[in-house]
Amino acid sequence: VMRRNPFGMDICCRKGSRSPLQELYNPTQLSNTAILHQIRRDQVTDTCRANSVSSRKRRVLTPNDLKHLVVDEDHEMIYCYVPKVACTNWKRVMMVLTGRGKYSDPMEIPANEAHVSSNLKTLNQYSIPEINHRLKNYMKFLFVREPFERLVSAYRNKFTQKYNTSFHKRYGTKIVRRQRKNATQEALRKGDDVKFEEFVAYLIDPHTQREEPFNEHWQTVYSLCHPCHIHYDLVGKYETLEEDSNYILQLAGVGNYLKFPTYAKSTRTTDEMTTEFFQNISSEHQTQLYEVYKLDFLMFNYSVPSYLKLE
């Protein structure tokens, strides 16, 4: 049976039970939430269309482009994880959903275990026909965050924490070597005192872009999740994390026994904090950095931050 729904998408109906996609596109009662998510989807579609010259340059997606898409076969869902946007907790939830009873409480799963790649199945591990089937039939979602707040959060986590020595060695030393005049031997060896200004200068340096793709912690959502090539059914936002997450769990039919973990993190990066970090960035660098993340701003409806002094 094919049914048209108010959002103009054909959904094939299973007899008896309603799939998450049917409930989303053809809700039993049209809620403000369903309308909100339609507006967010339209925003992505419109931005992709308006920027199609730059966004269509990407050839057909390869399996390597799909390594951020976590698959839950039991509930027919695909989640594209974006680092610094509650991805540890969403991975924990996905482990509960795909663990077939192995875990019941997401917060009992240690954070480092949530990031062990073998604990979750990603879309690049399937054959091409299997990939296409899942992309067509599963409910696909991702979570986004104000791009510069996400960037400051990544910087604080990776470059100001003493324990992140692998990041200091891998990126810190390179950033110091390239961006700091008269760097000390110790700074060149350790790379553990990168300033935010140096980090920004490294990100906008054309050499960086040519050399290798950005690390996933500061890569654009556009490049990690390919929203112009993959039609996401739900765009969750960090700013409304709990409501959006629980709505997804409810659509998946697990909302009665699984809630998204809530926690008050006192250290989380805020808008005020982000404003402060950008105080010392020249307007020229701010403008160049905005260009790098512009599609994320437009696609997910984040306005240009008021603290920016764009040229």
From TrEMBL:
<protein>
    <recommendedName>
        <fullName>Carbohydrate sulfotransferase</fullName>
        <ecNumber>2.8.2.-</ecNumber>
    </recommendedName>
</protein>
<comment type="similarity">
    <text>Belongs to the sulfotransferase 2 family.</text>
</comment>
<keyword id="KW-0333">Golgi apparatus</keyword>
<keyword id="KW-0812">Transmembrane</keyword>
<dbReference type="Pfam" id="PF03567">
    <property type="entry name" value="Sulfotransfer_2"/>
</dbReference>
<keyword id="KW-0472">Membrane</keyword>
<keyword id="KW-1133">Transmembrane helix</keyword>
<dbReference type="GO" id="GO:0030166">
    <property type="term" value="P:proteoglycan biosynthetic process"/>
</dbReference>
<keyword id="KW-0735">Signal-anchor</keyword>
<keyword id="KW-0808">Transferase</keyword>
<keyword id="KW-0325">Glycoprotein</keyword>
<keyword id="KW-0119">Carbohydrate metabolism</keyword>
<dbReference type="InterPro" id="IPR018011">
    <property type="entry name" value="Carb_sulfotrans_8-10"/>
</dbReference>
<dbReference type="GO" id="GO:0016051">
    <property type="term" value="P:carbohydrate biosynthetic process"/>
</dbReference>
<dbReference type="GO" id="GO:0008146">
    <property type="term" value="F:sulfotransferase activity"/>
</dbReference>
<dbReference type="InterPro" id="IPR005331">
    <property type="entry name" value="Sulfotransferase"/>
</dbReference>
<dbReference type="GO" id="GO:0000139">
    <property type="term" value="C:Golgi membrane"/>
</dbReference>
